[in-house]
């Protein structure tokens, strides 16, 4: 079967045959995955629609700006927008806390105190997502620790997502 030059049936080298077999197997596996995706692949690709509730923290906001935001939300200007279009997402709650600052004393100790000039603002947002895997609201994906732009027709601030949960669909 193998001659003195290492060819199979005197026609093809064994190494060339192995390379051809590996290429055929790789093409076969890729073709099978494209033609017949597994159930887990379909879930990742499609996800499912749902509602998401998340909290965005905006640090060091001017208290006067916060008062304007509260007034706009009280007037019902709480719907999200993205890329110039309204999105099925709403600011459902907003509150502020004193912005903490750290400074050192004359003794060389570090002390935490409240900043007299800024507040930290927390926006609670409820929004529809078409895919619970990507959790995108408009064009932004929602992930804890990720920067998020809170944008309505009246204001726009960038903060960090600090809490996120899919809502019960029965509620």
Cα distance spanning the termini: 72 Å
- Mean model confidence by pLDDT: 87
Q: Biggest sheet, in brief?
A: 6 strands, antiparallel
Strand content: over 45%
Structural class: alpha+beta
Contiguous runs where pLDDT drops below 50 for at least 5 residues: none
Shape: elongated
Strand order of the largest sheet: 4-5-6-3-10-9
Element pattern in H and E: EEHHEHEEEEEEE
Rg over CA atoms, rounded to whole Å, is 28 Å
Helix content: 10-25%
Q: How many beta-strand runs?
A: 10
Number of contiguous helices: 3
How would you summarize the topology of this molecule?
Elements: E1 7-8, E2 12-13, H1 14-35, H2 39-46, E3 50-61, H3 63-74, E4 79-82, E5 85-104, E6 110-129, E7 136-137, E8 140-141, E9 147-151, E10 156-166
Antiparallel strand pairs: 1-2, 3-6, 3-10, 4-5, 5-6, 7-8, 9-10
Task: Please give a quick description of this structure.
The protein is an alpha+beta fold.
Structure notes:
Strand 7 (about 135) and strand 8 form a beta hairpin. A six-stranded antiparallel β-sheet has the order 4-5-6-3-10-9, with helices on one face. Strands 1-2 form a two-stranded antiparallel ribbon. Strands 7-8 form a two-stranded antiparallel ribbon. With about 170 residues, it is of the alpha+beta class. The mean pLDDT is about 85. The longest helix is centred in the N-terminal third of the chain and has 22 residues, at about 15-35. It has three helices and ten strands, in the order E-E-H-H-E-H-E-E-E-E-E-E-E.
């Amino acid at each position: 079967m193998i001659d003195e030059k290492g060819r199979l049936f005197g026609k093809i080298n064994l190494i060339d045959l192995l390379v051809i077999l590996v290429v055929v197997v790789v093409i076969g596996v890729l073709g099978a995955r494209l033609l017949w995706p597994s159930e887990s692949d379909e879930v990742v690709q499609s996800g499912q629609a749902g509602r998401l509730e998340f909290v965005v923290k905006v640090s060091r906001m001017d208290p006067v700006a916060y008062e304007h935001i509260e007034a706009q939300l009280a007037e019902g200007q709480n719907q999200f927008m993205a890329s110039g279009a309204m999105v099925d997402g709403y600011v459902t709650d907003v509150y502020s806390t004193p912005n903490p600052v750290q400074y050192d004393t004359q003794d060389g100790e570090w002390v935490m105190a409240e900043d007299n000039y800024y507040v930290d603002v927390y926006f609670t947002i409820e929004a529809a997502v078409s895919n619970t895997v990507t959790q995108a609201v408009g064009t932004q994906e929602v992930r804890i620790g990720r920067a998020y732009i809170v944008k309505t027709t009246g204001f726009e601030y960038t903060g960090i997502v600090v809490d996120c949960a899919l809502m019960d669909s029965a509620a």
